[in-house]
Design a protein that fits this description.
The chain is α+β, with helices and mostly antiparallel strands and 223 residues long. The protein has 2 domains: 142 residues, Alpha-Beta Complex (Sufe protein. Chain: A); 57 residues, Arc Repressor Mutant, subunit A (Orthogonal Bundle). The chain has 8 helices and 7 strands, in the order ββαβββααααββααα. The strands form 3 sheets. The protein has a 3-stranded antiparallel beta sheet with strand order 3-4-5. A hairpin with a 6-residue loop joins strand 4 and strand 5. The longest helix is centred in the middle third of the chain and has 20 residues.
Length: 223
Amino acid sequence: MSDKKDLKGADIDVINQYTGEKWYYTDTVKEHFFKPRNLLLDAPDESNFDANGMVGSPACGDMMNMWMKVDPKTEKIKDLKWKTFGCGSAIAATSMYSVMLTEEGGMTIESALKVKPQHIMMRLGGLPNRKIHCSVLADKAFQKTVNDYFRKTDQHDRIITDGARVVDERLNITDKDIEEAVLEGAQTLEEVQKKLKVGVGMSEESVTDIEQLIRFYAEKYYG
């Protein structure tokens, strides 16, 4: 028996050299890895999209960048493109996710936000346990993209702030938004404000709090 098959004769795709753990990938996962849907290889024309969101950092590991086109009358997602530095499982999961949100005329933003990583897993037929986090990457990138859409369309009350501390209540900007701005290269109040407009017209105490967050994350990631 080949060492690439288990006791039942099933193909094993990966064997962890340290733990001996066996990983299996479904045909659907392989299809979306080798032929990913909605993947962008070149820099996109930003004018073709209504919103953009990025999570992660290429310096720290997995990163996902996503672009979305929305029908302003129905809020249906007409197009969803993406790029990633992630692994094969992240590519397959995001490919499937982009299909789910745009098939059959596109989901509304409200419906798309109800799609969870486990729903992606079901459509893929599962992922190895160590790769489940890859389906979360697409979900987080989409939430970031939707928040960008809400900001650009002045729907600040709809911005998703789960698990984060709001530092600018008018714009629903959180400490996580500050962290991501710093990860994207902003390291001063002025640079962060160019991205988020955070703190404009706020009290000196609030602005000082924002500056402290910027310094904290700048030191955390850049030393």
